[in-house]
Predict the structure.
Amino acid sequence: MAIDTVSMDKIVSLCRRRGFVFPSSEIYGGLGSTFDFGHYGVLMKNNIKARWFEAMILERDDIVALDSAVILHPRVWEASGHVEGFTDPLVDCRTCKLRFRADKLKDSQCGRKPSKHPGEIPDCDLTEPRQFNLMFETTVGPVQEAGARAYLRPETAQGIFINFKNVLQLARRRPPFGIAQIGKSFRNEITPGNFLFRVREFEQMEMEFFVPPADAERWYRYWIDERVAWYLRYGLRESRLRVREHGPEERSHYSQGTSDIEYLYPIGWSELEGVANRGDYDLTRHTEFSTTKLEYVGQDGERYVPYVIEPAVSIERIMVALLVDGYDEEVVGERERTVLRLHPKMAPVEAAILPLIAKSEGMVGKARSLYEELRRRHSVEYDDNGAIGRRYRRQDEIGTPWAFTIDEQTLADDTVTVRDRDSLAQERLPITGVRGWLDDALERDWKTPKAN
Ligand code: GAP
């Protein structure tokens, strides 16, 4: 199938140009595949987290929040299976000195001849594959001794399992209930790349939903549907989303069933989010390793180890999917514009306030006071720098859904123009009604105007 999608280079360039994302440690020459988020990137990430938190916690009453430590007791990772099994097979090329995943050679480029895969030209001299653990190691305490070895967490999920008993007792929950957490995870990926898609430091949003074993399959299907609905609610095109169920040979050691919610990224269909039925693997293993019983005991004496259903995703993968899905280039009035058609609740800036003429004290005064009024409750931006067309285009490129323009007529009748990013339609509103108009507009259902 021909992939009709924007290139990753265009997304990288827009993110750079508009200050969403920068290569990290750039003044020192950069540190491959690590990124820093600029102002608009932070605002967008905060929106992604807020929408997830609303859907997981605020809109339901069967999930509670948690924020566990990044560095956990090293035994946690023995119990979870990560020390033994969180590995990828790695090969080195003695000729070009590059490293590759042995199971992904067909997706990699030879260091000498990028049109070939590693091992395809006689020059290639690959080592035998060896297992490489993806966890970053560190030392806790001032002395570098074996006993103080610890790991940066490669997933947030284990912090949830080891707090199961606390939540069960203190939040007085009984299955089905969930614990949700947002936080950084770290993986020493052998082949990071494709911008934010595969990085070594990323922010995960994971929710572990504890259910009676007999209900696990039903809840597994339920969470796949819920998560797909969340992506559609925030504007991803249905034609760019699909659910792919793993075969038994592809599943992780803990999984009784896993489905990837895939998005059609510029690199092809790839995992956006995973939903897994982890069975009772984690609670049973932590019971074994910690000797603390992690089970549910009902008032009637009923006792069992709950099964766990887990939707897990990173903010980075959502951000790339939203940017790719929203990116558009078009010609308007003989001028080209780049526009990010983001859902208004995902866009970094909700509205721009623009005085038509920066030298007009009357317009600037009214625009400033509207900006002061709105900024208390909304992410808004004031801009009086340059021609109005250029200011509109700047806002289009960062995905701002609406611009309120203060012009001559505002001085006469206290009305402003509101311009819609997608349709370019303009209407007039009383300046006193702008706040209410924006509140309502943000609550409206939004669908991308892009054809599928
Ligand atoms: N607790 C289960 C778990 O971590 P995973 O499939 O390894 O499962 C879950 O990761 C999600 O985390 C993925 O679907 C993806 O959204 C994100 N993710 C994983 N590795 C990533 C990386 N190196 N860079 C960015 N996101 C990543």
In short: Residues 39-58 form the longest helix (20 residues). The chain has a mean pLDDT of 95. Residues 155, 157, 187, 189, 198-199, 202, 204, 206, 271, 273-274, 310, 312-314, 316-317 surround glycyl-adenosine-5'-phosphate (CB under 6 Å).
